Amino acid sequence: MSITTSIATSIVRPDKRSLELIGFALVAALILVVLPLALDIFRLNLVGKYLTYAFVAVGLVLCWGHTGILSLGQGVFFGLGGYCMAAFLKLEASSVANTKIQSTPGIPDFMDWNQITELPFFWIPFKSLPLALIAVIVVPAVLAFILGAAMFKRRVGGVYFAIITQALAAVMTILIVGRQGYTGGINGITDLRTLWGRDIRPDGAKYVLYFICCFLLLGTMFVARFVAASKLGRILVATRDKEDRVRFSGYDVANFKIFVFCLAAAMAAVGGAMFALQVGFMSPSFVGIVPSIEMVIFCAVGGRHSIVGAVVGTLVVNWGKTLFSESFPELWLFAMGGLFIAVVLAFPRGLAGLVTDQLIPRLASLRGVGRRQPSPAPAE
Amino acid sequence: MANSTDFLLALENVSVSFDGFKAVNALNLYIDKGELRVIIGPNGAGKTTVLDLICGRTRVSDGSIKFKDQEITGRKEQEIVRLGIGRKFQTPTIYEDLTVFENLELSLPRGRTVTGALFWKRTDEVARRVRDIAAMIFLEEQLDRSAETLSHGQKQWLEIGMLLIQDPELLMLDEPVAGMSVAERGKTAELLREIIKNRSVIVIEHDMKFVESIAHRVTVLHQGQVLAEGDMQSVQANPKVKEVYLGH
Question: Is B10 helix (H, G, I), strand (E, B) or coil?
């Protein structure tokens, strides 16, 4: 009797771990099977673009949800990853044959327009794909390390840290826009064509890139899960709740914060690189304050404590954005602001919280009622 | 060595001022190995500040603090912890979102680096150590419970357990029985008598009955200085102490 009850409750009310795995499986089925079958390549490519933001949201779950470090500058790391990828693609597209009408053939077009006659030294590594791929991860991670070490070792946290990351996002945008000859300026790096000789623009290539993006995202989710489930993950939660106690248990709290901040930056950067590949350009409009805050909203709507929630939240908000802005483009920003306020006030644990706190207990009590109903009768 | 002492902990001429206010003023305090010292004193006497100074949470303005003959002023909190000093806060400071087991496991002095924590394995030995400590602090039945569901007294015990598992040579407890029922106080006194066997303990306490039941030596602080020191009877008989504290 008690065994059947416990089996019943474990089906109705699965523990956290199996619930998470079910969530992972549902996300995988959705992005790998359902969406590719249901959508044409134009829409699927849009989904692929949304999924690149999900990398950022997963990083924010670790950094913000678990550790309590709110970064309003994740766009910087997304952007750096994207720019590193775009730099390689741009150099490949700027072969001497392709650019023979320029005054200096063989360099990217925007450099030529800005009277630059030689490839700047920091562009040279991006001639090589392996080096560019390493840079995608390493450049943002190093920046995050420098910022993190400077802030966390001095015990700067909370709102002050959020403001500094936001300032970083502003600085980065100004830098990119201002140094037009090196970065492509406000237009960004455009007209990306091939990856190692294969055209990235036709439908077939878009399908391939979409699936690469999906697998990388699933991999990122598993890395995030591994970290969250380790003792390190519990230290992160402990740091969020009682930082002093962690320090007085002999841990160097700053090192753990730096680690998770760098990890979140690296995840965002992979997303940025996949963005450049799938969308075919990279521009400062994905680096600044507004996109950085949007990424936080994706994570908040999905549920900042849940890896699966963050991915679903990103998809839902972006889907809403596309639908909404097709009909009422000027209203979208208000709608998103309203959504954010609603989420914070009404369900701070986001969509994931709705599922674990509302939906599943309700299902459980429905079944529970069904199970218990016969018992009062004999009692009477 | 010329300047060596037998004391486990020696505070000499320690002062700290906050915006000109001297919270601790030229304080001398010596703790022996294996001693249980109780610090009492009226509110604002600087009791908690003294613990903050020892564990590195507050920087001393002047003076020296030596632990096992090593100068520890200016060291980081986690370094002082690793030398063997554990600190319990006034309000129970535990990880509410984790289970009792996880609270104790995190406090075990192993796997304290980033990689050590990332690839941490919960071995049988770790589980056994956690269970042993849980049994000492009367929480062996509560290991899988989330710490936020514990009663106030149980939270106090859990924090003491989190220190015990570090096996510190010096344990500092800030009002360990605050908010406890009479029965819980009795059990806590029993626990303290058990844990003092292998280490030195500094306790800050207001509850005189509790102090009488545990103390070896009592230090009375007043306005950041030692007003009196000695066993319970002599301190209670001291007219200065009666005037500032016990008489009220």
Answer: strand
In one-letter notation, the amino acid at residue B242 is: K
Backbone phi, psi, residue A317, to 5°: -65, -40
Q: Is A15 a domain residue?
A: no
User: Chain B partners of A255 at a C-beta cutoff of 8 Å?
Assistant: 113-114
- Report CB contact under 8 Å: B89, A255: no
Query: Per-residue pLDDT tens for B27-74?
Result: 999 998 888 899 988 888 888 999 999 999 999 999 999 999 899 998
**Is A178 within a domain?**
yes
**Cβ pair B218, B38 in contact under 8 A:** yes
The secondary structure of chain A in percent helix, strand, coil, rounded to multiples of 5, reads 80, 0, 20
In a domain, A83, yes or no: yes
Distance CA B50, CA B221 (A): 10
Contact B7, B217 (CB under 8 A): no
Tally the domains of chain A.
Answer: 1
Euclidean distance between CA atoms B240 and B227, whole angstroms: 8
What pLDDT was estimated at residue A362?
85
The domain of A238 spans: 43-287
* Cβ neighbour number for residue A286 with a 10 Å cutoff: 25
Interface residues of A toward B, Cβ cutoff 8 Å, are 227, 230-232, 234-235, 237-238, 241-242, 244-253, 255-256, 259
Q: What is the mean pLDDT of residues B214-231?
A: 86
Task: Please give the domain boundaries of chain B with CATH numbers for all domains.
Answer: 9-246 (3.40.50.300)
Yes or no, beta carbons of A250 and B82 under 8 Å apart:
yes
Mark yes or no for CB contact B113/A230 under 8 Å.
Answer: no
pLDDT given at position B5: 55
A16: pLDDT strictly greater than 80: no
Backbone angles phi, psi at A250, to 5 degrees: 95, 10
* Residue B246 pLDDT greater than 60, yes or no: no
Look at A11-25, A88-102, A172-186, A201-215 and tell me which has the smallest mean pLDDT.
A11-25
B159 neighbourhood in chain A, CB within 8 Å: 245
pTM score, whole prediction: 0.90
| Over residues A169-191, mean pLDDT | 94
Contact B93 A251 (CB under 8 A): no
Are A192 and A280 in contact by the 8 Å Cβ rule? The answer is yes
